[in-house]
Amino acid sequence: MVLPTSPTTATGINSDSSVATNVNNMRLQLERRAQRFLDSTISYTAYRWVFTALSLVAFLTRILMTHGWYIVTYALGIYLLNLFLAFLTPKWVSGTSDSVLDNDGEDEMGGGSSSGGGAGGLLDGNGPGLLPTSNSEEFRPFIRRLPEFKFWLSATQATLVAFACTLFPFLDIPVYWPILLVYFVLLFVLTMRRQIEHMMRHKYLPFDLGKKSYRRV
């Protein structure tokens, strides 16, 4: 025998479902507005990076004034270094063992999935962005492992999160900061040396310096 549902219970269930629906709709609207705003900033490269640089300066200024949160600073530096290496590295090269970052690193940095055409192109040597190994080969554009916009977005988000971490005293873990500084400098020198060797081995330049550019008539 089925017991009848009281009007009070039915009203409570309907109100809870309507509240959940309204919250979900508000979340979707906020996500769309945020994505629309990010899409509108794509063409303003210089202004975007100026904002990121000012955020980083504000963060470092707070670190120097408070003499704390060195662990947060070290973590931010390592993360930005990984982003920079992914930005300098081509998405496909002529050998998988010569890549500075592996496929897992590509997925973490937002460079796209390594399955499907990406991994297949690497293994069979027919990737769409594979760098030419001789002058007779067809020209292929330089495709970064981490695009510029994703590099900027990840760097800005990491800087703002690191700045927010300085508002919480329990994240200020005591540490001897000169050790972290020396270790980061050594890590930076070694990784950049490896990256430069990778660029010289595959004969590519990740920047537009010295390249011809054409303007619209």
UniProtKB/TrEMBL annotation:
Pfam family, one: Rer1
Subcellular location: Membrane
Membrane topology: Multi-pass membrane protein
Transmembrane segments: 46-65, 71-89, 149-169, 175-192
GO BP annotations listed: protein retention in ER lumen; retrograde vesicle-mediated transport, Golgi to endoplasmic reticulum
Role: Involved in the retrieval of endoplasmic reticulum membrane proteins from the early Golgi compartment.
Family designation: Belongs to the RER1 family.
Protein known as: Protein RER1
